[in-house]
Amino acid sequence: MAGTCIFAEIYDENTNVYKYYSDGAWNVSSSGKSVPIINPTTRKTHYKVQACTQEEVNKVMESSKAAQKLWAKTPLWKRAEMLHKAAAILKEHKAPIAECLVKEIAKPAKDAVTEVVRSGDLVSYCGEEGVRILGEGKFLTSDSFPGNERSKYCLVSKVPLGVVLAIPPFNYPVNLAVSKIAPALIAGNSLVLKPPTQGAVAALHMVHCFHLAGFPKGLISCITGKGSEIGDFLTMHPGVNCISFTGGDTGIAISKKAGMVPLQMELGGKDACIVLEDADLDLVAANIIKGGFSYSGQRCTAVKVVLVMESVADALVEKVNAKVSKLTVGPPEDNCDITPVVSESSANFIEGLVMDAKQKGATFCQEYKRDGNLIWPLLLDNVKPEMRIAWEEPFGPVLPVIRISTVEQGIHHCNASNFGLQGCVFTRDINKAILIGDAMETGTVQINSAPARGPDHFPFQGLKDSGIGSQGVTNSILMMTKIKSTVINLPSPSYTMG
């Protein structure tokens, strides 16, 4: 069970509240308050976490700053060694962490285990990649620029930024946390984690794995609490030197307040799937199911709108409907394909999009059905641009189909969105695929496959309101460092001797 065995010290048995992590120890907040975590399936409080104060945030920042100075002097190979150790511990204890994911965010049990294992692999890969790219620098000579002689040597190296604030989302609270933690640590930074409320307990368990690996006191911190009380205080704190955020509209507000702090942000998408007449419709249907309905559509890279050529639309909708009918619906403990969405407010938002589409004449391929936070999978055909579902991100198991008469119409709809995370195109003609992909204003285009963030070492970025900067192991490591130049000034050009 979560909170037992090696994880016992992260739980306060006197109050039944999970502790927060700072200065190498598990602590109870002086606020005396807690934040409830609602089980999406039962809609009842399942866990509680500490409601930390602003003063506790200040103390965390002080210890983070001090720890980072020492950590930056730790040999690169030693940093990597410790990441490998943390990864092994994380994978060894995948079961209790996965259990938290099932209870907190209704992630199907098998997918919860996969997330933890994938996270361990990411941490290990980060250690290996960091040793390679951080161990390299540049050597420049002044006489390569016009008008200069060889009187200056420039040594270029990568140095850490300082304190990195990491804010992951509810849907991958472990994987998207370590995708920020591991690059920050290998690069020589300290790390302050503010986990999402739904997913906080899984994140605390994950942090304990780093604690068990023996990282120095103060280097890693995990602050829990209400965003209304410590959210802005954290993101605007003068001790923060970098912010890595994954989530929704909150990121736009953070970017406006962050000032000169480097930002890495992924803020969602309305990923379009363009289907041409010559596409393999069986392949398309399989990818629409995987891309649109896995984890109940609660993924930034989920297929969010299908733009299909009219001539093959009927055939494609028929194939997708046949697969939708086979999706299992129910609790995450039973490994169902469709599980409850994360909160009642999310379910209400999704229902609002569905009702708007119904009022405006969309074709319902299945009966709309909801029980609490559980929404049955729904394909909406003949969706028109005036419907909200054509543009807004449902983050649920509801997928709109828009029939198009030209490829240009599909590209236009994709590019008219304020999002630009990923998109995909299905065709047997590689020339068309490349031309369409180049025209789509998205950070990534998938050819003959549904959108996906991974593998985790691939670059991952969005355009427009979908984000700032690029992620992926290498890009994250580089983003969490800065260039430092050391210039050696010679008394005379080097080639005058001898």
Automatic annotation (TrEMBL):
The organism of origin for this protein: Papaver somniferum
Entries under Gene3D superfamilies matching the protein: Aldehyde Dehydrogenase, Chain A, domain 1 (3.40.605.10), Aldehyde Dehydrogenase, Chain A, domain 2 (3.40.309.10)
Source taxon at top rank: Eukaryota
Catalytic reaction(s) noted: D-glyceraldehyde 3-phosphate + NADP(+) + H2O = (2R)-3-phosphoglycerate + NADPH + 2 H(+)
Catalytic site: 266
Name the UniProt record assigns to this protein: NADP-dependent glyceraldehyde-3-phosphate dehydrogenase
GO CC terms, sorted: cytoplasm
Keywords: Cytoplasm, NADP, Oxidoreductase
UniProt subcellular location: Cytoplasm
Record keyword Secreted present: no
E.C. no: 1.2.1.9
Entry annotated with the keyword Cytoplasm: yes
Pfam family, one: Aldedh
Domain Aldehyde dehydrogenase, chain residue ranges per copy: 28-485
An example molecular function term from Gene Ontology annotations: glyceraldehyde-3-phosphate dehydrogenase (NADP+) (non-phosphorylating) activity
Family the UniProt entry places it in: Belongs to the aldehyde dehydrogenase family.
